[in-house]
Amino acid sequence: MLNPDLAKRLAGLNLSEAEQVEMKRFLTEESAKWTPNAGPQQLAVYNPADILLWGGQAGGGKTDLLLGLAFTQHQRSLILRRKYADLSSIIERTFEINGSRKGFNGSPPPKLRTMDGRLIQFAGNQFEGDEQDWAGRPFDLKGIDEATQLLESQVRFHLGWIRSADIKQRCRAVLASNPPISADGDWIIGFFRPWLDLTHPNPAKQGELRWFITNEDGRDEEVPGPEPIERGGEVYRPKSRTFIPAKLSDNPYLVRTDYQSTLDALPEPIRSAVRDGNFMAARADDQWQVIPMAWVLAAQARWTPDGHKSFAMTAMALDPAGGGKDVEEVCWRHGGWFSEIVSHQGKGTEGSGQAVVEIFLHREDGAPVVIDVGGGYGGAACMRLNDNEVPHVKFNGSHAGSGRAVGTSQPFENRRAEAWWRMREALDPNQKGGSVIALPPCPELRADLTAPRYLPKVLQERGVIQVEPKEDLRRRLGRSPGKGDVVVMCLSAGASVIKKVVLEGGHGELVKFARSRSTGPLARYRSHRRA
Q1: What phi and psi values does residue 52 have, to the nearest 5 degrees?
Q2: In the chain, what are the helix, strand and coil shares in percent, each to the nearest 5?
Q3: Which one is the CATH code of 293-530: 3.40.50.720, 3.80.10.10, 3.30.420.240, 3.30.420.10?
Q4: Residue 163 in 3-state DSSP?
């Protein structure tokens, strides 16, 4: 593609048509070291989105798009991979496009200065916190290759430092990636939900712009358009996102090779991820994953907005944040039906004030409340519930577990392991009558529930079920799995506190919480719990 300035100057020269053709050919070769493939790659170059997800199938030209943009459209570019060692092939391709190693400095972090003054820098962000090294460094392009291998927190941090002092320079981020093949990368589904999540009520077309703000609660909020919008007395300027899929058939350099047969030979689920570009069904369960993905998907498929109407409210649960950067989560259930999760972040979560208000607003039928006190943030909420005579129980995952796993009679290391295993048992479709758990179709909840792993070494050596510590899970995900925690508490501890309240006779009416006692999903659910 000929540089627009050169094309304008060429048109003003007094040249014959043949001379213009030859000069245009020459200038194109000299001024544009890279040109996009016709089709989706070309559309990606000129799509106006602030944040573009480009990818899907392997061989679609993801890495080439990042480098091509850096060579032709941007002045200061940062190309990222999760591991530093994975940069070698990208840098080799950089030399091919550049025509030589001229202008390259391999000292960490490696960078290239092109003849026309562009800077292309390369970096790895292997560990949580590595992204902090790039704070304050301005780049008008951030290209993240295999973005699902990075933590969501790392990606969001980098998106906050995209800028240019040149008002004519376009700024953007391009996330180039195959679908995730583990729970660690599931954040991409929520980030680009209108395009990737099959449960989205208003799906977006490929290349369509959607606009988002990070609201006062620190959460993504889709808004109607690019106009500034006010929330809580503050003005937010929306940023646009879109998704353009990349396919092997769009790449003329690979489509004629035998690369397709190589992809066909891959084992599942990697084949679905890199060959088919299937974001919703590609990833595999970890060998030691507590809850299988298929069980969670089935529970979300059972959910309907009015599914609670057949039952009284069974229990509520609160995972407090204490005013920190984590998100405060509240949910409740009616038998096996779980509500959509109410989330708050930042202001108002000190002392769980907003969460307690949510409990007072939504609580029905004398339902007891489960509060996570393991992080030290639940004390204020417990005090307010005490003052209002609301029955509640304190949940501390480090306390000793009780009971044994159904079918194996193996004990639990602690209450956290017991709670997660009880959710596994409740979701198991192979139990008598099947599972009746119905979970809201939230991508983050799906990721949270399928992320934890149990520890095989502990199980083998001590015969005890232990789920990986929450701190390890946070480091792996780059965030707290709060939505999963609050749902798990609402099931496990919720059932135990109901039993406690009924036995103590404090709220005898709770025994009548089922409006449909003898038949239907709740009767099956109660039968399973007795078993």
Answers
A1: -115, 130
A2: 40, 20, 40
A3: 3.30.420.240
A4: coil
Helix boundaries (H) for 128-227: 152-159, 187-191, 193-196
> Which residues are CB-neighbours of 40 under 8 A, at least 6 positions away?
60, 244, 245, 246, 247, 250
Beta carbons of 449 and 423 less than 8 angstroms apart: yes
Is the Cα dihedral 393, 395, 401, 403 positive or negative? positive
What's the pTM value of the predicted model, to 2 decimals?
Answer: 0.58
What is the rounded distance in angstroms from the CA atom of residue 487 to the CA atom of residue 483?
Answer: 6
Q: What are phi and psi of 54, to 5 degrees?
A: -125, 120
* Span 277-330, pLDDT tens digits: 456 555 567 788 999 988 998 999 999 999 998 888 999 999 887 666 678 899
What's the rounded Cα separation, in Å, for the pair 123 and 144?
10
pLDDT category of residue 403 using cuts at 50, 70 and 90: confident
SS3 for 447-479, per residue?
HHHHCCEECHHHHHHHCCECECCHHHHHHHHCC
Q: How many CA atoms lie within 13 A of 112 on its CB side?
A: 24
State pLDDT tens for residues 111-131: 999 999 999 999 999 998 999
Which helix (H) or strand (E) segment is 297 a member of? helix 293-302
Cα 58 to the center of its chain, rounded Å: 21
Dist CA 206 CA 194 (whole Å)? 10
Residue ranges of the domains in the chain? 1-32, 37-275, 293-530
| CATH code for the part of the protein at 37-275 | 3.40.50.300
Q: Which of 57, 116, 439 is nearest to 266 (CA)?
A: 57
